[in-house]
Design a protein that fits this description.
The protein contains seven helices and four strands, in the order H-H-E-E-E-E-H-H-H-H-H. It folds into three domains: 96 residues; 68 residues, no CATH class; 85 residues.
C-alpha cells in the first residue's frame, strides 16, 4: 500500500495536531482551575481580613470586659467596705438608743428619783407611745410624754432634775420648761384660823374618845364570852383597862392649845419651804 505525499504529510502532522488539541484542553482546564483557585484564594483572603478584624474587635471587647470586671470588683470591694462601716456605725448608733421599755418602768424610775431627792410626787401622767415628730426616712422611733408634779424645796427639785438629765434611761429625752409655783406667806388671820381649827378638831377628837367609853362595857362582855372567867394570861379586866386607857387618854385644853400651835407652825414652815 502506497501512501501519497499528502497522506504522509497528514500522518506526520496528525500527532502534533492531537498533541496540540490535548495540550489546549489541558491548558484550558488548568486555566479554569487556576481561576477558580484564584477566586477561592481571593475569597479566603477577604474572609481572613474579616476574621482578623473580628478577632481584633473581640480582643478589644475582651480587654474592655476584663477592665469592666476589674472595675466592678473594685466597686464591690469599696461597697463591702462601706457596708462594713455602715454596719459598725449603725451598731454604734443603736447602742446610744435605750432599749424598749414600758411606761410603768419610766414611772417607777421617776418616782424613785423623786423619793431619793426628798420630793413628794403629787402627780404623774404618761401618754401612750407615739411616733416621733422629727422627720426621718431611715428610722422609726416612738416617744412618751410624761407630765409630773412634785412638791419640795428648790434645791431638792434641782437635784431631781440633774438626776433625770444624767440617768441613762432618759438620755434620749428632753426636758420642757419647768413651771415653779411658790406659795405666798400665810397672813396672820389665816395662821390664827388654822390654829383655832386644829385646836377645835383635837378637842372634838377628845370628845369622841370620851363618848367611846360607853362601848367599853360591851367590849368587856365580848372578851369575857370569848376568853371565859378561868382564862390564863391577861385577865378580862386588865385587857379592858388597857383599851379604856387608850380610848380615854386625858389631856387639857392648854395641852390642845400647845399642840395646835406646834402643828400649825410646822404646817406653815412646810408651806414656806415648799414648791409645787
Amino acid at each position: 500500500m502506497k501512501f501519497t505525499r499528502s497522506t504522509w504529510i497528514t500522518l506526520f502532522f496528525a500527532p502534533f495536531l492531537v498533541a496540540a488539541v490535548v495540550l489546549y484542553l489541558m491548558y484550558n482546564s488548568a486555566s479554569k482551575d487556576q481561576k477558580l483557585l484564584q477566586n477561592n484564594l481571593n475569597a479566603a483572603r477577604l474572609s481572613q481580613t474579616a476574621l482578623n478584624k473580628t478577632k481584633s474587635d473581640l480582643s478589644a471587647q475582651m480587654a474592655q470586659a476584663i477592665a469592666d470586671v476589674a472595675a466592678w470588683n473594685n466597686k464591690i470591694t469599696l461597697l463591702q467596705t462601706e457596708l462594713g462601716q455602715a454596719s459598725l456605725s449603725l451598731k454604734q448608733t443603736q447602742s446610744k438608743f435605750p432599749t424598749s421599755a414600758q411606761t410603768i418602768e419610766y414611772n417607777e424610775t421617776l418616782m424613785g428619783l423623786a423619793g431619793s431627792s426628798n420630793l413628794k410626787m403629787q402627780m404623774i401622767v404618761a401618754t401612750e407611745p407615739a411616733k416621733g415628730d422629727i422627720s426621718t426616712s431611715n428610722f422609726t422611733f416612738y416617744t412618751n410624754v410624761f407630765t409630773i408634779e412634785i412638791r419640795g424645796k428648790v434645791s431638792d427639785i434641782l437635784d431631781f432634775v440633774n438626776k433625770i438629765v444624767t440617768n441613762s434611761i432618759f438620755k434620749t429625752g428632753a426636758l420642757t420648761p419647768v413651771t415653779f409655783k411658790i406659795p405666798q406667806p400665810l397672813s396672820q388671820v389665816v395662821k390664827d384660823q388654822m390654829r383655832a381649827d386644829i385646836k377645835n378638831q383635837m378637842i372634838a377628837d377628845k370628845d369622841a374618845s370620851i363618848q367611846g367609853e360607853a362601848r367599853v362595857g360591851l367590849i368587856e362582855q365580848a372578851l369575857l364570852s370569848l376568853l371565859g372567867e378561868g382564862s390564863t394570861g391577861p385577865t378580862v379586866a386588865q385587857m379592858t383597862q388597857a383599851i379604856h386607857d387608850i380610848i380615854t387618854t386625858q389631856f387639857s385644853s392648854s395641852i390642845a392649845d400647845l399642840l395646835s400651835n406646834e402643828i400649825a407652825l410646822a404646817i406653815e414652815n412646810g408651806l414656806a419651804n415648799s414648791l409645787i
